[in-house]
Amino acid sequence: MPLQDELDRTDPEGAIAAAAKRCSNWGRWGADDVLGTLNFLTEDKRVEGARLVRRGVSFSLSQAFDTDGPQKGWRRRTNPVHTMTDTGTDAERGNQGFPHGIGGADDVIAMPLQCSTQWDGLGHIFDHGNAWNGRRAGDVVTSEGDLVTGIQTAAAHITGRGVLLDVGRAIGTDGELPDGFAITAEHLEATIAAQGGSARVGRGDLLCVRTGRLTRARRDIAEGRGWGDYAGGASPGLSFTTADWLHGSEIAGIATDTWGFEVRPNEFDVAFQPLHQVAIPNIGLFLGEMWDLDALAADCAADGVWDFFLTAAPLPVTGAVGSPVNPIAVK
């Protein structure tokens, strides 16, 4: 496995191609596969996850979906717009047209599917025109959506054993990693060693990695500085060199408390999300972003237990390449 300081930062094309070849899962589950690494999340893994519920305490790992979110319009990503179509005022005035005094409220929301806590689907990123499992990108995602690996194909699968690696607490200062900090496989393994046996990571697990970046963003908001560049700017995150670790660990999915999952700025002189380019279309790995891991992390640190039952089903939006999610961790 190449170390971070061994990367040829001037050759992203070569490094991405080499990692894609080493880490490819194309054909592993057959030519028609649409689940990628979710194939590792078997019925036995779901039973294992369910058995981790002992106290019954639950944590939502989702940020809010509202107009005060972090989006600033990059790639036409905006914050949700929530509009009421029927209200209590309408009911009081009797203008809803219902009989015998019944009234109601209804609402609608308009938002990009990846504006807050979300999963990246397998149709979200391509590598040299190839989608997951070696399919042509244009045959997979058209103006009608993802015709093959739409996020609805994952709707029943993402529930099982969750593991939190609080790298911010184990490696960082005051529970946070600085922007631009590249988390290597060595950092992940050091965090597992520090947290103990319940932090082991293996086949079929749903891995959550806390950097502390959301904690810092919330402090900035509280002190009047707003979200800043939380969505799209500099951030700690996974190093490109973790591609082999992600592939070899055979995890089902990974989520972080950051906008982009991988370190920002990216590690090459000229690059844009190179780890995405390996992880999604070549490994077939589901990536979660902007998850809120702070309350869960505090509880895990208090009781020393870092694994839990996790359910994180995407909305089955037919043909979508990503989805909002409200992940629930139960301990």
From TrEMBL:
Region spans: Disordered: 68-95
Taxonomic path: Bacteria, Bacillati, Actinomycetota, Actinomycetes, Geodermatophilales
A single GO molecular-function term is: arylformamidase activity
Protein name stated in the entry: Cyclase
GO BP terms in the entry = L-tryptophan catabolic process to kynurenine
Q: Which organism is it from?
A: Modestobacter italicus (strain DSM 44449 / CECT 9708 / BC 501)
Q: Which PANTHER family match?
A: CYCLASE, PTHR34861
